[in-house]
Amino acid sequence: MKWYDRITMIDRRVIYLLLTVFVIIPFFIKVTIPQKIMPQTRRLFDFIESIPPNDKVVMISFDYSPQTQPECHPMAKALLKHCFARGIPIVGLSFEPEAPGLAVDALVSVVQEIDSLATNREDSLVYGIDYVYLGWKSGRIAAQLDMGEAISGVFPRDYFGNLIDSLPLMQATKNYKNVAIVIILASADYPIDWIRYPQTRYGIKVGAGLTAVMAPQYYPFVQTGQVSGLMSGMKGAAEYEKLVLDHGYARTLGSAETGMNSQSMIHILIIVFIILGNVGYFFSRRQKGTHK
Amino acid sequence: MKRKLPLAICFFMGISMMIQFFIPHPTSLNFGSMIYKWIIVLMAFALVLAIGNLIRHHGFKIQKGKEDWPYSIVTLTSMVAMAIIGLAWGIDPDSLYQSIYLNIMAPLGGTMFALLAYYMASAAYRAFRARSLEATLLLISAFVVMIGFMPFGQYIHPRFPAFAEWIMKVPNMASQRGILLGVAFGSIATALKIILGIERSWLGGKE
What we know:
The structure holds 2 protein chains of 2 kinds.
Chain A: H1 3-6, H2 12-28, H3 39-50, E1 57-63, H4 69-85, E2 90-94, H5 100-117, E3 131-136, H6 140-146, H7 151-154, H8 168-172, E4 179-186, H9 191-202, E5 206-210, H10 219-224, E6 227-232, H11 233-246, H12 255-291
Parallel strand pairs in A: 1-2, 1-4, 2-3, 4-5, 5-6
Helix pairs in contact in A: 2-12, 4-5, 4-11, 6-9, 11-12
Chain B: H1 4-22, H2 26-64, H3 69-89, H4 96-127, H5 133-149, H6 153-156, H7 160-195
Helix pairs in contact in B: 1-2, 2-3, 5-7
């Protein structure tokens, strides 16, 4: 067998083994490669920066499942850290049935981290005053439209069973007039409904944090300004983490930085394999051509 | 009557929901709000149907001893157990329900999705060949985007990230916009056909 035939027939077990090794390496060898911030990530960050503290809330729609947790969870945590550090209240909700567990986890872990550093009561975060999680609701388009009239009409109780009219934050947040932006963290085509319906009707600002597979679909909306900012995949999450760290809103980077290194290593490996496959293909085709 | 009544309801609801979208009068807003609540309730009923269907499907498989029937027991047991745990002990952040979700469901979901990386790497190596001009263009653009979006892409060549961004913002956006417009026009046409009673396949039957 010729060398070019051999490189087109690498056993898939070798590929799997190399892939595993390449994924694991960055977890043991910490390398911080400077991130070039994409304009759409910076736009989202700048939008949050422009919201005055303790004025309007940021609504986060947690619409990702465990399958895409490595991409979307760091986005959620970085975004929560940014908002809390700037004194912006958060109202969370979900239209993806698998998401509430992850939403609660993101909120609790960020709140615990901030509270552990708090020196007095005012620095700590209180449920119902600084943040609320409304939970999951079926019929998302109808729910999104109806929240424009009254959020309590769609979510009479929060995820934990409290009447939302009894929560101080929700007493001040009646509908989209009290929401600065809704940011959808999703692994599926959820943001399009927010753009088509509540934004068209109520003019609510929409931001998004999407998996790398989904993000290209939303570039037209970023260009037209219908999406005020976009975090694209793990890269977007790592960029947002860096922005939050650089502005002093966090003390360390999150998990997207390590994830990004693993992802880059895999991309290099895939590129090398594709090149090998094509070199082999090119030479074997040339060889066949010569024999003819 | 069996066909005319649903068509009349469809026409009335379609037109009234369209009108209330453009006329923000309190009457139309209240009407819209009421309908949205109906939709939410209807969608919740769909969930009940789904659960019923799941129980029926897997119950049948277990009863008949069909292929992989033990997995059906796992599915039904998990569903019932999670429902009981959630209802009995709550869904607070430190509850058993949340603990099971984070320690079993989340890693399992992540593992399933992570397996895709292995198949994708193997498939890319075997299938991604520059066999034609189109395949070569696809290959080159994929390389540029992959390298451009990697943090060290800028060190390979300082213009890599900008070029990757250009691919996403110009050729990608142009095609995405075309698809979006096509889908939008198609949706409007289909919606109008249903509201006006031209498209009647949703009624069932032969007509």
